[in-house]
Structures are given as C-alpha cells and as structure tokens.
Amino acid sequence: MNILEYENYHEDKTHVELTFPYNTYLCSIPLDFSGVPLHWHDDMELIYIKKGCGHISVDFKEYHVTAPSLVLILPGQLHSIDQYMDESMEYENIIFSLSMLLPGKYDYTKEDFLTPLLAGRFTVPTVFTPVYPYYEDVVAPIDACDEICKTMPQGYQLYIKSKLYEFFFVLDNRCRNLTKPLKSKKTLDKMKVVLKYVENNYADKISIADIADVAGFSESHFMRYFKETMGTSFVDYLKDYRLTMAARLLQSSDSSVLSISGEVGFESLSYFNRAFKKHYGMTPLQYRKGS
Question: Which residues form the HTH araC/xylS-type domain (predicted)?
C-alpha cells in the first residue's frame, strides 16, 4: 500500500479520474485513520476542515488548524495531517489536477498566474480562516463545487471548472505575495526524493547506506541533513512511517498481526508489537478492536 492508496478509499492508485480530474473525499481523524504521513504528489489538494481541529504541516511549516478553515497544498508541496492530542477532525479532501485548467499554448491564465505560482515566483497563504479578510471569497467557489457535486447535473464539469478559475482569480487578485517560503527549494526537492523512496520501498529493508545513496550524500552527511530538516532521525522516521501504515492495515484488513508486521517492513513480530504499543499506547490487537 502506498500513500496514494492510504489517503483515499478507492482500489486504484490515483487520486483523480482521468476524464475529469476532480475528486472529493470525506475523511475523519482518528476515525478513518490516525494520520497521513509526510508526502507529496503532483495534484492540487485542498484540505477543508469542517469540524474539530488537527495538525497539518506544509513544506515543514506547522499549522494547528481548527474548523472552519481551508488549507491550500500546491503540487509538489510536502505535507502531512495528524491528530492533535485527543481531538478529532473531520475534513473534506479535495484533489484535482491543474492540467484541466492549463491550456497547451500561451495563455494569460497560465503564464501570468498559475505557472509563476507553481514555480514559486510568488506565494499565497497556505491556511485560510474566517479572520482572514478574504476568507468568504476564497471558500465560496469551493462551497459551490461541493453543492453541485451533490447532484452532478448535465454539464457540472463546466461549472466546477468555472468555479476553480474563480478560486484562482481570488488568490491572484487579493492574496498573492502575502507569505514567503521558509525552506530553500533545494532542501525541499532533496527531501522529496528521500520521502518518495520511503513511500515506495518502506516494506523492504532500507539501510542508511541505501537512503544516503538515494540522496547523493555520504552516510554521516545524510544523517545530519535528515535530522536537521525533519527534526528526527531517519531510523525513527522510517519506523513511525511503517507503524502508521500498519495501523491503517489493522483498520482496513483482516490480515493477521504477523502478516501486517512483515508487510510494512518489520522483521521481528516481537519488536513490532513493542514499537506499536509504545507509539499508540496499546497493542495491535487492542488497536484493531477499538477501531
């Protein structure tokens, strides 16, 4: 199971329909899953918090978010979603491909706003809350998309496209250049390669030498780089990632604990049980029964 499968409830491994790349998923933490590990993808993502509160990170900046609020994730941005203390959070995950809004030839909508935004030549806020002066203007087009998706009448795709253009108009006209990126692009791009490797290979044995080679560093340089960037060691990050995937499998499958421990990359069942209990405060079986 990779992160794309983890984030949604579909059998396929893509977020969006190729014929119309706009999808919405209703999610609840911790009811549906305990959290979404740090990852990135090429789609645009909006996290629309409807109830409760949680913790979201975007390009290593941490946000405590409460309902109502809208979090903007640009293609390629590193992001994660976690439970905040014992609180729950219900949110709408809106994922779409910008390709449906980008014409192939020169066009002002592409060259004057979308391309510069994606290239980082200017920025817009990441989190919008009701205290933000243009909050209602920002969320109104998204609310309109939600409403029409309830019935999906003939031509609803045209309506959604028009509302997405309206959404980006508000960002361009009223919100641009209000924030600045905190991390260098080089640091982010390097970490994206590392995290994508973990995402695709966490079930296999990954040594420090392996992952340092992926990053193009010596082992000592990589360990220092990862700790300084992520705030934790790579060994601990990999263990926590595997435990997160194990928790998801405990909730969504009937596989045995032994099978799941091997499937997520633990070579020892006893070590898996100890690590899981330390991380979640209960055994894997207790976690499964309580889910």
Answer: 192-290
